[in-house]
Design goal:
Elements: H1 2-30, H2 36-39, H3 54-63, H4 65-68, H5 73-81, H6 89-92, H7 99-105
Length: 108
Amino acid sequence: MGIFLHTRIPLSMKVFESFFEKATGYLLKWCPLQDSLLINATWIGFNQRLNQTFSSVQFFISRFPSLLGDLNIDQFLSYQIMSEKDIPDTLKDEPEVDPAMLTSCGDT
């Protein structure tokens, strides 16, 4: 019985290692990790706001002018110094995408 368990454990670990290697390879190949939209979207995360610059916001303004066209650096700085308690609970919920917004951005 002991020999059976010892031979099965290393085999199981090899299977898990193989799975994670293949899964990671797939993610690196097919996920848009270097996509400029994702790279510049980090300012949106409230917990990351202090580590960001206005250049990422400018990227979004140029890409989606109908959504953020009037956002300026003073508003961005106000967002950066905003306290957690100042964020309404409704904004902390899961985001919902309005299909009309996608149409207005030209992303459909």
